[in-house]
Each structure stands twice: as structure tokens, then as C-alpha cells.
Amino acid sequence: MSEEASPDTAALDLDDARRRYHFALAPEDLDRLPFYAALLARLEADEGALRLLASVRAEQRNPMLVLAALHRAALLGHPVLAPLYDAIRRGAVTDVGVAADAVLEVVRDEPEVVRSQLWRSTQTNEPGRSAVLQAVVRDLVAPGETMAVIDVGTSAGINLFFDRFPVSARDTGDPLTLVCEDEGSVDRVTPLPSVGARVGIDPSPLDLGDVDDRLWLKACLWPEERRRHERLDAIVAHYLTWPPTTLLEGDALDRLDDALALTAADDLRVVVNTWSAFYFTEAERRAYYAALRELGASSNVAWVSVESTLVAWPDLAEVADDRRRGASQVVVSRPGEAPVRWGWCHPHGRWVERLGGA
Ligand SMILES: C[S@@+](CC[C@H](N)C(=O)[O-])C[C@H]1O[C@@H](n2cnc3c(N)ncnc32)[C@H](O)[C@@H]1O
């Protein structure tokens, strides 16, 4: 699979690319990630970098893809990027501006480092979102009821193990413990339901056992967040001891019925999408939503959506909540009921807020 991005130079929308670089990080992450903040500021101001991003197919036109391509080159030993990203990961860089300048030089001198990877998709598989899923599932699944999980846009399927991760408000030092601060009445006490089938769907599922796939998963992480790197390493070391999963290759809509067919009828089937509908086309999103409404009306199917506010679901009024700028909205539907906004969370599950009365 190597469809090179083929820029139609005349049609490139550089203003759009500039906006995308500008808003790539949530405001609350800009201070936390000074190197990526500095690098994005430089990319936003560089015409070559704008062209690279603008040349990506629309549904993947995400600055994270450019950042991941650079990070991948670093992990593969690029002579400039490797030592620099290694120092960033170790927290050993004092002047992030100088570091970001050096990366920009690579983008200018060797655009192929980025361009050659633009056929890929942003496939960040973020286990932190499992902390959000645990909270929602405790609300959705009645005591004694069992469930199956279908993760749409599953990447490497890490969130199919959502119930395997301990959650704590503070870093305990254990890489497998997710750190998530709760706001509102989030239930962390009720035992999680027993989970039957665990099925993921993705157009290009990644294999935690494959060296290249693991490299891309690492590249999609942010170099300044050492704990996320350690967590991925720990997951790779443990996942074979966890319950089996099935990853189906294909688009959400094409494989949803196949996924449902792998679940037991009396389990509550919980269909989940976390930061994957963001990459659907508008038509796909509408059809996916309609399919889930229909399934929810006629069968034992619930839905949990954790997506950017840029993903507008048809029946939910948009909210302009400045406090939640850059946050992800959590939308939930129970069988036979219309979707409701359940709450908010950090895009990587660093905090979750459950709205009252959901
Ligand atoms: C940013 S990753 C998120 C992965 C995972 N859901 C998580 O939260 O960690 C987005 C995933 O959506 C997948 N994706 C993109 N378009 C899709 C589609 N039409 N149907 C299913 N998955 C899709 C991508 O391949 C990618 O693995």
C-alpha cells in the first residue's frame, strides 16, 4: 500500500493547512509540550511544510501525520532527527526553539522524509481513552449484564483491552496504569462487566507483533511524553496474556455486520469509536450514524463515541464551551434511546468529565 500523495499544486489550500498546524494541539497541551508547540509554530510559517500537509488526501490532512513521519525517521536513526528526538524524549533539551529549527531544516532540505510517509494514516492507538470507556461502560451496562465490544477504527486494537488497565488520578509509576482525573460523578468503583467478544474494525489494522507496525504506532506518539512510550512497550510485553481479540480489515460500514455476527446475542453489544469518525468522510459519518441509530432501535446495541467537536453528529446541538476548547466530546446511546452528550474528556483521556443527568 503506497499511494503517494500527489499534490495538484494549483489546488493546494495553504491557508487551510496553516490553520490545521495552528490548531493541532489542544490549548491545554501547548504548555505541556513545548517542543511540539515550537515545531508546529515553525511548520505553520513555512511554505514547504504547508504544501506537504495540503497535499495529503482530505480525510487524513492532519498535522499529526507530518509529525509522525518526522518522528518515524528519528526512530529509524536519521542522523539529525534521531539524537534530537532521543534527547527530547529524555527531557534533555533546554532550548526547544533550537531543536524545532533543526527539524524544520530537515523538512526543508529533505522533504522526502515526510512526503514518502503521507500515504499512511494517523493511527495513534491511545490506551488513555480506555479510562473514558471504563467510566462510560459502568453507566451503560446494568449490574450482572455482560457485554461485547466492537471498536471501530481500532488501529492495533489496544482499546479492545479497555478493561485490563488500572486507572488512577495520579501516576503510580506503573506504565500500564492509566492516569485520568475525574470530574463530575464518574464511577470508578462498580466492577466492570464481563466482556465476551472483542472485535476491532480498521481499513489497515496494525499488528502489535509486527516490527513495522509497532514503529508506526511509536511514531504516532508524541516524543515529549515518555510515559506513553513506556505504556506502549508494556502493552506489547503483556497483550498476548490478555483475552483474544479479532481485528477485521475494512471500513466501518462494510464490516459492522461482520463484527456484530461475532458477538453473542445476549451480550450488550457496545460499538465504540474513539478518534476514528474524525477521519471518515462526511457521507461515511452520516451513514455510520444512521446505521447505529437503526441498530440501537432494533437490537441490543449501544454506542459510545469519543471524538473531536469537529465531528458533528446530526441530532446533537453544537456546544460552544470555551472551557472545553480542544476537548473531545463523549456521546452515548443506549438501546432504544436517542444519543446524548455524556460528557467531555481530554483527547488522550487525561481527564474525563461526566455531565450530570446523562
Ligand atoms: C487516530 S486513530 C484512533 C485509533 C483508536 N480508535 C484509538 O482511539 O486509539 C484512527 C483510526 O481510524 C481508522 N479509520 C480511518 N477511517 C476509517 C474507516 N472508514 N473505518 C474504520 N476505521 C477507519 C484509521 O485507520 C486509524 O487506525
Polypeptide structure, described:
The protein has 358 residues and is of the alpha/beta class. It folds into 2 domains: 9-115; 129-354, Rossmann fold, CATH 3.40.50. The protein contains 13 helices and 11 strands. Strands 4-11-10-9-8-7-1-5-6 form a 9-stranded mixed beta sheet, sandwiched between helices. It has a two-stranded parallel ribbon with strand order 2-3. Helix 3 packs across helix 7 (96-109). Mean pLDDT is 94; it is low at 1-8. The site of S-adenosylmethionine has 24 residues, from strand 5.
Discrete helix count: 13
Q: Mind describing the biggest β-sheet?
A: 9 strands, mixed
Outline: globular
Number of strands: 11
Helix/strand-derived category reads alpha/beta
Q: For the residues shown, what is the average pLDDT?
A: 94
| Helix content bin | 25-40%
Provide the spatial order of strands within the biggest beta sheet: 4-11-10-9-8-7-1-5-6
In short:
By secondary structure, the chain is α/β, with parallel strands linked by helices. The protein contains 13 helices and eleven strands.
Key features of this structure:
nine-stranded mixed sheet; disordered N terminus; binds S-adenosylmethionine; 358 residues; Rossmann fold; 2 domains; single chain; two-stranded parallel sheet; alpha/beta
